[in-house]
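Thread: "does anyone have the structure for this chain?"

Original post by V.I.:
We have the sequence but no experimental structure in hand. Need at least a predicted one for the grant figures.
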Amino acid sequence: MTDNRTVAAIDCGTNSIRLLIASAGPEGHLVEQARDLELVRLGQGVDASGAFHPDALERTFAACRTFAQAIAAHHCDEVRFVATSAARDVSNRDEFFDGVREALGIDAEVIAGTEEASLSFAGAMSGVEVNEEPVLVIDCGGGSTELVLGRGTRIESQVSLDIGSVRLRERFLHDDPPTAEQIDAARTYVRKMLDECPVDVDAAQTVVGVAGTVTSLSAIHQGLTDYDRAKVHRSVLTVDQVATLTDKLLSSTVDEVEQMGPLKRRRAEVLCGGALIIDEVCHRTTAGELVVSETDILDGMALAMLAQGR
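Reply from O.Q.:
Generated one for you, tokens below.
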């Protein structure tokens, strides 16, 4: 039975806010109607201040107003807005909630890292074919990184770590480019987090990466000048290629990073931090390569909404 509804999923992270409008196809697969992304840097300064910056809030609300137009044009039956790492600990969440409600007419949900991890796993698994299990899904965002180990649709273990591209850049990688001492401090911090991580990363036979850091690494590696989702989706990076890209990003200025591929400025500013996290995780796996997926938490959200409606 096909759900003939159209749903909209909005994922508001530390660096980006993204929209997916979709319906269900004959076999339950998502039929994408629209997809959009705005790099609003909602988490600007949050790690240090514990509050959303007024400029970051206004950028986010402007994106919400744009998304509201698309949602209305597609006559969506249900809309879900989830906020992740940046919104979990701030002191002025009510201001954020009020602005989202005014722009979209719905309430924002601040979801726990465990739900973020499970939605990312479901979304990733909906878009890639896996021959060897268990599978490790890495979702490296601006404020947190989710690691999920599972088989099929079953999750065996998961964790949300307070390390992300924006958080690492603001906390450790201050210079442009970062100094060797700053990079060492960042790697030491990430390694400590991974040492204490309850997910057995080494057990993974397949490693799948989702979200902007990983897709940007693929685009740079492929030499893309214009972003092409079809070329990025299901592309593969070896662990050595990830390491080479990471070293290149960490030794480059933001201006230089911006010229490496189809990158927006706010992505280029923090990409070295995200790459460092991906590099550290990949070097703890035995799979030898990273499969890049364009399907992620948005797809997991849309699939869940459509499944609940049947």
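V.I.: this helps a lot. The two ends are 8 Å apart (CA to CA).
O.Q.: and Residues 250 and 272 are 5 Å apart (CA to CA).
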